[in-house]
């Protein structure tokens, strides 16, 4: 991390109006971390360890430990990483496995578009409008969720609606014709989650682990909520996340935003748009969502995965799997992964081998 990034984070901490530890305690913790890690603990800022309610700073993973878990050759294979990284290949695979996913009436590889009935090459917005209008009519959809094959973190995602389609294509159509996307039916979110936030689909992130005895575990779970008019719930897009108690399926603790560039990250006891109280709110069909994740692991036996699950009115649905999940958010939501009963083994297994430095295309996005 550059000096400019470091000083920028210091400015973010100063702007954070949350209750902080004393300056003396922060200095002591930073000094201890530097002495033990032999480098500056950059995660201290991004994981809010300067806040008084963060608990023991030593319970949290360092940036190096996150990278080792995310890209360890012992926990990850290139085959499954490639499968999950590409949204088209994973959607087709999950469909073949009989797992519940959103229906996909259309996808395109740049100017070549594929429907159930035909393959067509499109170069103009008028032709794209005609194709999508036909899909809306044939499939009886009012909207479609569009995702770029290889993007992550909520980037390259659009909600296109039947109403006002031509105006929408004037804005995003040129990108759709230049890149590659899948077009999926819009999931009808469960009423209980719509009551908290209905602006977007609010997904649960499960992190899973297959131990050295080949037993499957759900390590942790948290839910992400969108804010305002965002069509995605990702923390990187302004949303926030709340931990889920795995025993009760209820929310626990505050909601957290990531450390932001223009102000300190906010915390929430209520959703800022609906004022719905978060603490102890029940996640509908949580046990069924856990069962779905464990079933999906049978078809994708990657040792460490982040699963995004939506709760629809008909039950849980797989949105996608992430072969190298950003562990930072889960670490915060859990209150420090090093106190997790499984994480000592996870770290031991991760450090048995090197990492896929030369294979993972987005390795640079580790922070």
Mind explaining what this structure looks like?
The chain is an alpha+beta fold. Helices cover 34% and strands 21% of the residues. It is built from twelve helices and 13 strands. The protein has a seven-stranded antiparallel sheet, sandwiched between helices. The protein is globular and about 65 Å long. The N and C termini lie close together (9 Å).
Q: Quaternary arrangement of the chains shown?
A: single chain
**How many distinct beta strands?**
13
Name the helicity range.
25-40%
Strand count, sense and closure of the main sheet? 7 strands, antiparallel
> How much strand content do the residues show?
15-25%
In N-to-C order, the SSE pattern is HHHHHHEEEHEEHEHEEEEEHEEHH
Distance between the termini: 9 Å
Strand order of the largest sheet: 11-10-9-8-7-12-13
Q: Count up the helices.
A: 12
Mean residue pLDDT: 89
Rg over CA atoms, rounded to whole Å, is: 21 Å
Structural class: alpha+beta
The 3D shape can be described as globular
Low-confidence stretches: 360-367
């Amino acid at each position: 991390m550059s000096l400019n990034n470091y000083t920028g984070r210091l400015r973010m901490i100063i702007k954070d109006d949350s209750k902080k530890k004393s300056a003396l305690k922060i200095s002591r913790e930073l000094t201890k971390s530097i002495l033990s890690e032999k480098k500056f603990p950059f995660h201290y800022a991004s994981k809010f360890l300067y806040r008084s309610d963060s608990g023991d700073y030593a319970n949290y993973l360092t940036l190096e430990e996150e990278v080792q878990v995310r890209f360890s050759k012992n926990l990850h294979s290139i085959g499954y990483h490639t499968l999950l990284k590409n949204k088209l290949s994973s959607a087709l695979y999950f469909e073949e496995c009989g797992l519940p996913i959103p229906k996909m009436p259309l996808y395109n590889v740049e100017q070549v578009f594929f429907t159930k009935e035909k393959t067509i090459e499109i170069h103009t917005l008028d032709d794209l409008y005609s194709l999508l209008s036909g899909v809306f009519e044939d499939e009886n959809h009012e909207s479609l969720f569009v995702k770029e094959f290889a993007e992550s973190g909520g980037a390259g995602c659009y909600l296109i609606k039947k109403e006002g389609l031509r105006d929408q294509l004037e804005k995003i159509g040129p990108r759709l014709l230049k890149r590659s996307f899948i077009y999926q039916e819009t999931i009808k979110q469960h009423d209980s989650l719509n009551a908290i936030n209905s602006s977007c689909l609010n997904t649960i992130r499960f992190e899973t682990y297959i131990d050295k005895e080949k037993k499957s575990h759900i390590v942790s779970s948290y839910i992400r909520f969108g804010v305002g008019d965002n069509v995605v719930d990702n923390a990187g897009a302004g949303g926030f996340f709340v931990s889920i108690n795995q025993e009760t399926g209820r929310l626990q603790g505050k909601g957290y935003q990531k450390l932001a560039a223009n102000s300190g990250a906010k915390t929430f006891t209520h959703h800022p748009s609906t004022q719905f109280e978060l603490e102890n709110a029940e996640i509908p069909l949580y046990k069924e969502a856990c069962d779905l994740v464990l079933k999906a692991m049978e078809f994708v036996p990657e040792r460490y995965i982040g699963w995004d699950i939506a709760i629809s009115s008909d039950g849980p649905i797989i949105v996608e799997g992430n072969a190298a999940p950003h562990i930072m958010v889960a670490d915060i939501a859990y209150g420090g992964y090093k106190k997790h009963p499984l994480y000592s083994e996870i770290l031991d297994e991760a450090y048995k081998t090197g990492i896929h430095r030369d294979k993972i295309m987005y390795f640079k996005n580790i922070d």
